[in-house]
Amino acid sequence: DTEVTQTPKHLVMGMTNKKSLKCEQHMGHRAMYWYKQKAKKPPELMFVYSYEKLSINESVPSRFSPECPNSSLLNLHLHALQPEDSALYLCASSQEWGYRGKGYTFGSGTRLTVV
Amino acid sequence: GQQLNQSPQSMFIQEGEDVSMNCTSSSIFNTWLWYKQDPGEGPVLLIALYKAGELTSNGRLTAQFGITRKDSFLNISASIPSDVGIYFCAGQSYNNNDMRFGAGTRLTVKP
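YS: structure for the whole thing
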């Protein structure tokens, strides 16, 4: 299995809703990442988990709450989002954080629309 | 933070033409990577480079890690319609484990 699987593929939520994005990989990778990508822009790093511990939080607002239940799963809990949070949310994994390996493997993303 | 300058921003070419794009940085990277992203999908790794001066090919794609470790280029030869997409360079340094992306080059190939 050489994939990163993200669900759901599309999500529309109201500003008062609570929802979660899920990411799963079975490649034995010990680092997992959340990126946010706006239209016509490169992905921007949000969070890094290394060995299931939060290693980087790029000053992301608290309405985004990451969770790493185990080495294969990464969640992003969403609450009280704003319309400007609408974007493609990408999950990625790598053998280890900073490892000189084969780069990151990305999922297909969740297209989030906040109404 | 480390800035990556990627150019050109977009390219419109005829099928069969060769394409070249590049990335420069104000600081040194230990790893350069090139990704392609199709609409509605995540980036897919095309080529990874680990050593200054390294030249690596993947089919019609060739990429080089600059001698100064502050730049990299990607060439695509004999372009075909499925080459359409956005190409991102990315750099990683040992001082900062994060991988940072360039702004992307949007490639359009006319049949």
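YS: worth flagging: The interface with chain A takes residues 30-31, 33, 35, 40-45, 48, 50, 88, 90, 92, 94, 97-104, 106 of chain B (CB under 8 Å).
IM: good catch. Also Chain B has a mean pLDDT of 93.
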